[in-house]
Amino acid sequence: MSDLHAREASSDDWDGPVVELVEEDRVIGLVYLDGATLFAEFNRDDDGDAWAFEVADLQTALDTAGAMLLPEGTSLLLESDPTAKEDPEHPVDRLAGEFDGLAAHRGDEDEGFYPLDVATRIVGRCESLGLAVVSLEGFKLEGGWASPIPGMSVDTGDAHAGEPWAIFMAGCNVQAMAVLERWAREPRLVIALEVGDSDGDRYVL
């Protein structure tokens, strides 16, 4: 993970608040509002080449910048995706519809236990649906039974509690992806996930 982050700034070229995208004290771009639309402009490096970043790091920085500039409660997904407002289906229902059938095992209360690669895809999909992965727990699947693995339970929602929604969502999902990367070597691993929406509701997949 890089040091890429957002910080408040001012600009002589823009009449209004701006946010700088910074890595190791180098300003690599600006984020600003033009009317109700959020824009990002990127500089080139000292050699005239384009900057390159991991998508997750860049998304987190942009989400943070958006939360700093947009009114409280505004979703970056809804601003950038005009079809999202027209879809009456709750994003959790969409997520479940796409991934329920990929569970390796289901518990007594129909909770899903997902292979690592599927869990990773779920985290990525949550980002595009405007959802946050608020908890993960690792289980070992043996003989048709899922047993919890000691020390493999993370509540990302608690870790980011109190943050504005866009920052909360981005922070939870980036942390969830990092957790899954750390757990990748565990044999017979399946993952139970809980996701949250912008209303503060939590759902077991």
What's the rounded overall pLDDT mean?
Answer: 83
- Element order: H for helix, E for strand: EEEEHHHEEHEEHHEE
Structural class: alpha+beta
CATH topology of the largest domain: Ribulose 1,5 Bisphosphate Carboxylase/Oxygenase
Instruction: Give the tally of structural domains.
Output: 2
What does this 3D model show about the protein?
This protein folds into two domains: 5-70, no CATH class; 84-204, 2-Layer Sandwich (Ribulose 1,5 Bisphosphate Carboxylase/Oxygenase), CATH 3.30.190.30. It contains six helices and ten strands, in the order E-E-E-E-H-H-H-E-E-H-E-E-H-H-E-E. The chain has helices spanning 55-69, 76-80, 91-99, 116-129, 156-159, 165-182; strands at residues 5-9, 18-23, 26-34, 37-42, 105-106, 112-115, 132-142, 145-154, 189-196, 202-204. Helix 1 (55-69) packs antiparallel against helix 6 (165-182) and helix 3 (91-99) packs antiparallel against helix 4 (116-129). It is elongated. The chain starts with a strand and ends with a strand. 28% of the residues are buried.
Provide the fold topology.
Layout: E1 5-9, E2 18-23, E3 26-34, E4 37-42, H1 55-69, H2 76-80, H3 91-99, E5 105-106, E6 112-115, H4 116-129, E7 132-142, E8 145-154, H5 156-159, H6 165-182, E9 189-196, E10 202-204
Q: Tags for this entry?
A:
205 residues; alpha+beta; Ribulose 1,5 Bisphosphate Carboxylase/Oxygenase; four-stranded antiparallel beta sheet; 6 helices; elongated
Short description:
This protein is α+β, with helices and mostly antiparallel strands. The protein has six helices and ten strands, in the order ββββαααββαββααββ.
